[in-house]
Amino acid sequence: MESVSEFLSSATFLLPLGGFLKAFFVAMFGLNLGVILTWVERRMRGMIQDSIGPNRAAIPLPGPVAGGLAFGPAALGAAAVVGLWFSLSQDGGASAHPGWGMIFTQAATFLIWAFSAIMARIVRERGAENAFEEQFTDLGEPRGIVVAGILVQLALVALGVATVGTGYEQAFTDACFSGGMVLLVVVMLGTAGYVAMRLFPEKEVRLTLLGLLHPAADGLKTAFKNDFEPEKGDKLLYQLAPWISFFPVLVLVAVVPFGPALCFGMADGAIDFFTFQGIEAVGNTCEAARFSLQVADLDVGILYYFAMAGTAIVGAALAGWASDNKFSLLGGMRAASQMVSYEVTLGLTVIGALMIFGTVRIDEMVRWQTENAWGIFVQPLGFFLFLTAAIAETKRVPFDIPEGESEIVAGYFTEYAGMKFSMFFFGEFVAVISSSTLMAALFFGGWHLPFLTADGISVTLGETTYFSAAIEPSALAVLGFLTMIVKVVALCVFQIIIRWTLPRFRYDQLMRLGWRKLLPASLVNVMLTAILILAVQSAGAQMQAVVAWLGQLSMLTLGLGFLAVLIGLLVFLITPRKKQRLVVSSAARYVEAMGGVRSLKMEA
Amino acid sequence: MSLRSEDDIVLGPRKVAGSPVARPERTAAVQGYIPEMIKGLGQTIGYALRNTKEMALGTRNDPVLESIDDGINTISYPEQKRPYPERFRGVHRLTQRADGSPRCVACLCCSTACPAQCIHIEAGDYQGDKARAGYEKYPKRFVIDELRCIFCGFCVEACPCDAIRMDTGIHPAPYDSRDQFIYERDLLLNIPGREGQHHTENPRVEPGEAGFPGIARDQH
Questions:
Q1: ipTM for the complex?
Q2: Do B183 and B131 reside in the same domain of the chain?
Q3: Residue B66 sits in the same domain as residue B123
C-alpha cells in the first residue's frame, strides 16, 4: 500500500503523465476549436448575409433524457456548491473567505436575470403556456431585464465596497456567504427543475447546441463518403499528402505556453507536485522546480514553429502532384510558391521581435512582455506584417489562390474526397488556430493580463501603486490559462472576419504584395527596430525611465481600452433598433389580419 | 442614352426614387487599400453583431410583415411556413354532403373547363338509393393529376354544385414518384379545407326534403 502511494506521488509517474496530458490537451484544443471555428465561420457568414445559417443538425432525445441532461448537471453543481460552503465554513467561515460570498451572490443574481430574460424572450415568441410563464409577460422586454440584472450585479459590488471598514461589513459578508449560497442552490435547482419539467413529457427533444452540431455532422458525413482515388496518380504520395499537410499545423502549437509556468517544491531530488508555490510572473521566479505549460520545452523555440510550418508546404505541393490532374497541379504549384514567398516575410518579421525580446524561446518572449510591454506596442508594423503573412500561410481568403474555385475548381485537393478532403479543409482551420496561438504569444503577451503579477493585480505607474489586490496563485494560474484561450479565440475570430470581408487577390497581385511590398517593409522593420534598440541602449538613465514609463502606459491603455470595448458592447446590446412594418404582399396582409405570424404558428 | 437621368428610370407604375450609384473615387485612401479595408472590416463586424444581437434577444424581423426590412428574414422551412393568402389556390378537395357522400354529380363541367386536361371522371348511377337513384349521377372515379394541374382554378369556377374547391391552403407535397401525384376520389374527399371543414356553406336541399327546388319524383 505504501509503495503505491509512494509511486503515485513520485515524479517518475507524474512527470510523463503531465507531459502526456499537455500534449493531449493541445491536440484536443486544436481539433475541437477547429470544429467550433467552422461553426463560427458559417454562423458569421449567415449573420453578415442576413440569414440564419446552417443550424439544423440535431440529436433527437426522448423527453426524460433531455430533462435529465438539464437537471443532472445543475443538481451536481448545487451539491458542489453546498459541499464547498461546508468546507469553507469549517475553514473559518465568511470572515476568512470574504470573496466567496460575493461569488455565490453574483452567480445567483446572474442566473436569475439570465433565466428571466430567456423566459421573457420565449414567452414573447410563442406566448405564455402556464401561470408561471405568465409572470414573465409582465416583466417586459428581455433587453430591459438584462440591463436591470447587470445594474443589480454592479449595485451588489458597490454595496460590498461601501460596507468595507464600516460596522456593517461583517453582517454583509455573512449574509452574502450563507444567503448567497442558499439563493444559488435554490435558483440552480429551480431553473433547471423547471426546464426539466417542461422537457420531460416531450416525445422528442431536438438537441442542436445552437447549431454547433452541424459542422460535427458534416465532418462525420465525410467519414462515410466514397474514398475516391485517381487511377493514374501516385498512390503512395496521394495517400500521404493529407497527413503531411494536416499533421504539421497541429503540432505547431507545441512550443507555445498556454499559461504561466507553475512553481513546485523539490522532494528527494525530484519535482514534488503536491507543493504548489505559485506562478512564475513579475515578482516571482521559480526556485526549486518549474513546470511549464507548453508541450515541448525546446531551446529552439520559434525556429521549431517555422520548421514545421515549412513542412506543411510539402503536403499541398505533393497533393497537387500526386492527383494526376492539371488543376490540382496548378493549385499545388500556386500553394508552394505562395507559401514559400510569404514564409520569407513571416521569418523576417519575427526577427524584429527576436531582437527586442532577445530570445527564441517563446515562454521567455512572453515573460519579457509581462515585464515590459506587449509585443504589439513594441512591434506594431511587425504585427501587421506577421498577420498578413500568417493569413497567406494558411491559404485562406483573401489569399486562397491555391484553391481559387472560379479558376481551378478546388486547386490541389480537387481529386480528394471524403475524409482526406476534410483533412485538408480542417487543416486550414487548425492552421488558423496555430497561427493565432503564436500571434497571441508573440504580440499579445500570451497568458498575461495588464498589471498581473505573481501576487495578484497591482496597478503601478512609475513608483506609485494606485490599486492592488491579492489573488490566490492557483486562481492566477487558471486566469492566465483562460486569458490565453480567450486571446487565441479572439484572434481566430478576427481572421474569420477578414475572411468574410476581403475579396480574393489576383495571382500577380499576391506575388507583388509578397515580394515588393511586405518583404521590403519587413526589412525596414528590422532596421527601424535595430536603430531604436541602439538608441534606447545608448541613452541616459532618464531616457530609460521614460521608456519604462511608456511601457506601463501601454498597459494602462490596454486595461482602459478593454473596459471601453466591454462597455461599448453592452451599450450596443441594449440599444433598441427602430423597425417599421412593411405590409407589402397579400400574404402579409393576411397575416396581419390574423394578428401576426407568432400567433399563427406559421403553419400554412 | 439618357438612362442616367432620374426621370427616365421607371419600374412598373412607380418611379424609382434616388439617383444612380456613383463610381467610387480613386482617392488616396481607396488606393492605399488599408483604410478602406478597415472600413470594410467595421461594416462586416457591425452586420454580424447586429444580427447576432437580434437573434439572441428574439427581436429579429417578422419574416412576413417586415419581409423587405433590413435584417434576417429567413423562414426556417419546414418548421416555419409562410402563410398563404386567404384566396390561395392550393390542392383540390371534393366537398361532402351531410351524409359524407360527394356533392359532385359527375356533370364533367370541371374536366371540360380544365385547360390542362388533368381531371378524369367516370360517372355512375346511384343504385338502390330511393332518394337519388334515377335523379343524379355520382363520380365512380374522380382523378386529378396534380402534376399536370396548373392551379388556374377554372374547375372551381365551372362547378355548378360547389363540389370542387381549392381552399385547402396546402401546396402539393414533393413525392418520390409520378403515381403519387395522382389523387383519387377518396383522397380528395378526405382533404379538409383551411378550417378543417369537409362541407361548404352553400346550402343543398336533397330531393324529398322541404324546399327542394327541382321536380319531385311523384310530380311526373
A1: 0.76
A2: yes
A3: no
CA A32 centroid distance within chain: 11
Summarised one tens digit per residue, pLDDT across range A460-517 is 776 777 777 777 777 888 888 899 999 999 999 999 999 899 888 888 888 898 899 8
Q: Could you tell me which residue, B54 or A577, shows the higher pLDDT?
A: B54
**Which chain A residues contact residue B37 at CB under 8 A?**
501-502
Residue of A474, A14, A17, A22 lying closest to A270 (CA atoms):
A14
- Pair B196, B98 in one domain: yes
Contact A363, A292 (CB under 8 A): yes
| Interchain CB contact of B85 with A (< 8 Å) | yes
Which domain range does residue B42 map to?
A: 26-83
Residue A476 contacts residue A260 (beta carbons within 8 Å) = yes
**Cβ distance A335 to A327 under 8 Å?**
no
> Is B211 part of any domain?
no
- Tell me the C-alpha distance between A304 and A318, whole Å: 22
Query: Which domain CATH number covers B196?
Result: 3.30.70.3270
Distance CA A599, CA B158 (A): 36
Three-class SS state of A558: helix
A&B contacts, CB < 8 Å: 120
Question: Minimal CA–CA distance to B145: which of B106, B175, B103?
Answer: B175
Q: Which 135-174 residues of chain A touch chain B by CB within 8 A?
A: 141-143
Are B65 and A579 an interchain contact pair (Cβ–Cβ within 8 Å)?
A: no
- The single residue listed with the C-alpha cell 523576417 is A348
Q: Which helix (H) or strand (E) holds A467?
A: strand A464-470
C-alpha cell at A322: 500526386
Amino acid occupying residue A110: F
The answer to whether the beta carbons of residues A256 and A448 sit under 8 Å apart is: no
| Same-domain pairing of B57 and B39 | yes
For A137-157, the pLDDT digits (tens) are 877 777 888 888 988 998 988
| B137 strand-pairing partners | B125
Residues B107 and B47 reside in one and the same domain = no
**Residue A338 near residue A510 (C-beta atoms within 8 A):** yes
| Pairwise CA distance, residues A362 & B23, whole Å | 48
Would the CB atoms of A142 and B58 count as touching at under 8 Å?
yes
Cβ neighbours of B38 in A, within 8 Å? none
End-to-end CA distance of chain A: 72
* Residues B52, A47: C-beta atoms closer than 8 Å: yes
Let me know if residue B132 belongs to a domain: yes
Query: In which band, very low, low, confident or very high, does the pLDDT at A245 lie, cut at 50, 70 and 90?
Result: confident
With H, G, I as helix, E, B as strand and everything else as coil, classify residue B59.
coil
A50:B51 CB<8 A: yes
> Both B56 and B101 in a single domain?
no
